[in-house]
Amino acid sequence: STQSTWGVLMVLEFTAVELCAVGLVTLSLLYRYSAKSVPLYIKAVVYITWLLCFSIVALIPLDVYLTSQVGEQGQDFISLRTVWYSMYWVTFSMTWVVLPIAQEVEDAGDFTQKARIKRSLKNNGIFYAGMAALGSIFFVYLLMKNEFQWKAVMDFAISLSNAFGILLVISFLGYGLVEIPRDFFNKSKQDIMLKYYHFEASSLDESRDDALSEMDDLIRKVLVVMKRSDLTAEEKTAVDLMISEFPSERVSLNRSNLRTQDEKEISDEFGGLTMDKLIELNRKIKRSVMDLRRAEAKWERTLERAFLLEDILNSSQERRIKSSLRRPPKGIFGSCIGYLEWFWHVKLHRPIYFGLAIFFSLLSALTILGEILIFLGRPTALRFLLELETSFFSITLTCLIPLLYLVYGVYYGLFSMKISGFYGLYPHHQTDGGSLVFFAMNFARVSSPICLNFLQMIDMKETSFHRVIGQLNFVPIFGASMTYVFPVTLVVLVAFNFFDVWGRLVSSIGLSRFRFTAHFTDDKIEEGKLLLRHARVEKEKKFLAAAEDTPADSSMRMRLNDEKQSLHDDSARRSKRKAGEP
Hints:
Blueprint: H1 2-33, H2 40-70, H3 72-77, H4 80-107, H5 113-144, H6 150-187, H7 190-226, H8 233-244, H9 248-257, H10 260-269, H11 275-314, H12 334-376, H13 381-388, H14 392-416, E1 418-419, E2 423-424, H15 433-457, H16 464-469, H17 482-498, H18 501-508, H19 524-546, H20 551-579
Antiparallel strand pairs: 1-2
Helix pairs in contact: 1-2, 2-4, 2-14, 2-15, 4-5, 4-15, 6-12, 6-14, 6-15, 6-17, 7-8, 7-9, 7-10, 7-11, 7-19, 8-11, 12-17, 14-15, 19-20
């Protein structure tokens, strides 16, 4: 009818606005995480992949609404099945073809773009050849049963991709459902957070030292190679490119400190110099430079957060936050802005974060209950709520709250994942191209399985999405049992994370591990506190040097002199304790 058509058109208009918002959010995330040195083509493929992943999630409520309220007529009207087919196969192609090639290009140490592309195609060709060999077994199976059809091949590919994605979802969701409430609960306790920043400062200081040590080692190797008289023109160009990637001050320092013994050891290592050795060295240099830049950025961010918390805790009885590192707000609204800032950090921060911790704990509990009901084959309360709702906006809201929390839980685990020495997502423009591509691939692999799991939770298998992408029973080794394996495994992982089974296991074999509790026994807390005091004094000196001289500044300078003497005494006592002196 005309009224029904107008209703669908209004729904489409809202969906278009929603997708535009998704595009803007995706763009802001890419801007926040991508390093400025990441090539434009990497940013483009990552943006397209992230946009497709987030759009799949955004369109699920529309599919649920059309299935429950409009029926087949509404689905055919907007060709939703065609949309799902197109989005899925574009995402599939990006995940298994485009992004792996782009990742190899970014990680390669070759000195020209052509050489990096050639190496990437070669390495990925080996992987695709292996997959083709495995796929041929399935083709033979279909031929023997006289069931060979292209649809069967496509269903098999979807099934394998979904099964792999479900394994990732289980792993990350089992972590996120526990850690999200715990993270907000910890952040509600500012005094505990300050202790955590003390610990983190000590760990980051070690990371910076390790990154600098690794970079210096690589600089010395390049300097020794530069002195060789048998370098070809190609090798000399490669060496010049490598040395230009390092900070100039580090190169000068290592050039002056280079010892004869170091030269001999490095010369022996690079005795038979080849381009392959230089390519591998360049690959390590690229990662080392990024690691150091990232460590410095994390150090500065930790300082900012720790100093702000110190100021907040020291101003709890005031009506504004007093700080020695910034001027108070001025102007007509200066006092009002200062009061609002103090009121938020001192009065509102704790109850709001504690309330969010309770809210997310309830959502985690309801999610786990929903997974258990899937295992038991019983409908969840969400299904009954959706049957009571009739408007598009109420159905969308009912779907989005649990669906977004599922996405939040999985992506929280993904964003928290740091593969040591390889990949990690770091804010403030500190994520390299290889890491961006790696996480784009994993975002794409989990987006459809998350939505499938949500549709199982609300017991709605008539949607266009489920009919197009919900292929899992097609693979005999996975089959319908995956419906039951997912909830059981997820509950086990949640229990492991909640009771910190991994942490207890590590502690039992004698490895120290930082625990986020009110009682700290790790020596790094005191060490980090001293490091932050040193850093704060240096920051205050720079702040005073750039500021106008006032009576308050003169008082601060006197305090800084006393603080410097106190730090000197603390450092001397700490050195004696390390040396075992009384």
